[in-house]
């Protein structure tokens, strides 16, 4: 037989619960209005997933871990629409395609890293993650990119321990908050609609430039002018971070 228990609160206890709930709600709304919702204190390590919600700047980012074909059409669209983006590339890919990486930087796009091998960090011991990051840092240095400070963990999978390790090694972890899953090739219109409908001030958009994407370049023909027409300004991740009044939304 199931038993159901009803907890009876005294009147003052009920009012206390109401007060605490109201205080929590007010605090949450205040943080949201300031564009900063933190799961850690200001003294702890963090991952950036959104810039200042009060500014119209947004950051378009691309991940590349394999292939050498699709990135060129994407770069062409960015050039035609005069948009700067941030490319996160794996060390293994950069090592194989330094000439494409040079083309990206010559077009004044920004470069961040995806570690060396594009393998989920949560499936590895922390020492393995450290080795991967150090090896990536060494590889990027050898091909002329010694000052890369932005890290996007492979597949966007990380925890507090990985964020702390990244910071110890001089990296800032960069996540995202708009993801049209273009690598799944859901259709050009669906990619366009997702980005156009979901993007708001301070957002970081995740797209891809590996050879798995077949519709991304075409979707940019609508996305880039469409977001500009809505009043958004494309900036690099560094610019988003370094805004005078930028506040970061933190993820665990």
From TrEMBL:
Record-annotated NodB homology domain positions: 56-235
Organism: Virgibacillus litoralis
Transmembrane region(s): 12-31
Domain of life: Bacteria
PROSITE patterns per record: NODB
Official protein name in the record: Polysaccharide deacetylase family sporulation protein PdaB
UniProt key word RNA-binding: no
PANTHER family per record: GLYCOSYL TRANSFERASE-RELATED, POLYSACCHARIDE DEACETYLASE PDAB-RELATED
One Pfam assignment: Polysacc_deac_1
